[in-house]
Design a protein that fits this description.
With 339 residues, this protein is α/β, with parallel strands linked by helices. The chain folds into two domains: 151 residues, Medium-chain alcohol dehydrogenases, catalytic domain (Quinone Oxidoreductase, Chain A, domain 1, Alpha-Beta Complex); 155 residues, Rossmann fold, CATH 3.40.50. It is built from nine helices and 15 strands. The strands form three sheets. Strands 3, 4, 5, 6, 7, 14 and 15 form a seven-stranded mixed β-sheet that branches. α2 packs across α8. The chain is globular and about 65 Å long. It binds NADP nicotinamide-adenine-dinucleotide phosphate. The site of NADP nicotinamide-adenine-dinucleotide phosphate has 32 residues, from α2 and α3. This is NADP-dependent oxidoreductase.
Length: 339
């Protein structure tokens, strides 16, 4: 093959905010698939907040990316060559095969998708890991009921936009929180949330006005000052879905004592009988993928669920786009169009 592979490697572990020099972009030979492997050409790469964790060697639920290794990430693309009977050239597949154009990957790490069902890149967002996260977290922990008030932080983002629309489809009153007027207008007018509050303004006053009876379910994507404002407003028996706290991902380990955003006083957990639960989508979520995909495709087809992507062109632009994601520069699910 005359074509070259293009890869983004982790050059060094960032301290605080990642910078472009923490990554290295290299051209290499296209790999040959080994026995039972499939050669995939990636068309789109998903950029997600969890990748900041993989750049660090602090103890976590998953192993870090080794220095000099390809950055981890989900892609969607097509099979170029296959040494496995379940896959043939031309199949559309999604899987975790990193920030690179080509990858030879074990067949077990791939999932076939039907390209007629949705645009290719949607398999990384609304029909991918972030959409599954939203659906799974609501099924397992949030359990929104008709008439309840659900608050979703990072509401215009990959997880937030799906979580809010599913909660709405289940009859809840859904209030988003996002950064800036454009994102808030999108969340209210296009996603159909009942309101969207700008966390750059006076969030306490906006929450008082939007949730006069308090909050039943809070979907936590952000942490920091947003969590601090939401937390005292829980109603009895509220549920807090601890999905992520992106505002804290660039903090050095052990920085909690100085420089970390203040956390809420957790005393009301007892008094109000709150349920706060963290989860990782890979716990059980992927086992439920067919159920999730069927429900969300149904909502998409009946126009009850819309989605927004932020598509950045070119794999070499992935590091800058990822650095921006950790500062709220993306508007919608961030994906890289590889070529
Ligand atoms: N538990 C799991 O299995 C799981 C799976 C997937 C994702 N997650 C978590 O879900 C959350 C959302 O992920 P996503 O993929 O949907 O990302 P996203 O919302 O598409 O993008 C991140 C958004 O977070 C907000 N943000 C970024 N930096 C911030 C900061 N310093 N302070 C406040 N807000 C900030 C920005 O929105 P605004 O401009 O609106 O503030 C930004 O657009 C993350 O915490 C992620 O780690 C967890």
């Amino acid at each position: 093959m005359s074509e070259k592979n293009l890869q983004v490697l982790l050059r060094r572990r960032p301290v605080g905010e990642p910078v472009a020099d923490d990554f290295e972009i290299v051209e290499t030979a296209v790999p040959s698939p080994g026995p039972g492997e499939v050669l995939v050409r990636a068309r789109f790469l998903s950029l997600d907040p969890y990748m900041r964790g993989r750049m660090s060697d602090a103890k976590s639920y998953s192993k870090p990316v080794e220095l000099g290794a390809v950055m981890e990430g989900m892609t969607v693309g097509e099979v170029v060559a296959s040494n496995h009977p379940d896959f043939k050239a031309g199949d559309t597949v999604m899987g975790g095969y990193g920030w690179q154009r080509f990858c030879a990957v074990e067949a077990a790490r791939l999932r076939k998708v039907d390209p007629a069902e949705a645009p290719l890149s949607a398999n990384l967002g609304v029909l991918g890991m972030p959409g599954l996260t939203a659906w799974y977290g609501l099924e397992e922990i949030g359990e929104p009921k008709a008439g309840e008030t659900v608050v979703i932080s990072a509401a215009s983002g990959a997880v937030g936009q799906v979580a809010g629309q599913i909660a709405k489809a289940r009859g809840a009153r859904v209030i988003g929180i996002a950064g800036g007027a454009a994102k808030c207008a999108f969340v209210k007018d296009e996603l159909g949330f009942d309101a969207c509050l700008d966390h750059r303004g006076d969030l306490d006053a906006q929450l008082d006005a939007a949730c006069p009876e308090g909050i039943d379910v809070y979907w936590e994507n952000v942490g920091g000052h947003v969590q601090e404002a939401v937390f005292p407003r829980f109603r009895d028996f509220g549920r807090m879905v601890m999905c992520g706290m992106i505002a804290q991902y660039n903090q050095a380990p052990g920085a909690d004592a100085k420089g970390a955003p203040a956390g809420p006083n957790l005393g009301p957990v007892v008094r109000k009988r709150l349920r706060i639960q963290g989860f990782i989508v890979s716990d059980k979520g992927w086992q439920l993928y067919p159920q999730f995909r069927a429900e969300v495709l149904g909502l998409m087809k009946s126009k009850k669920l819309v989605w927004k992507e932020d598509v950045v062109q070119g794999l070499p632009n992935a590091p800058e786009a990822f650095i921006g994601l950790l500062k709220g520069k993306n508007f919608g699910k961030l994906v890289i169009a590889i070529d």
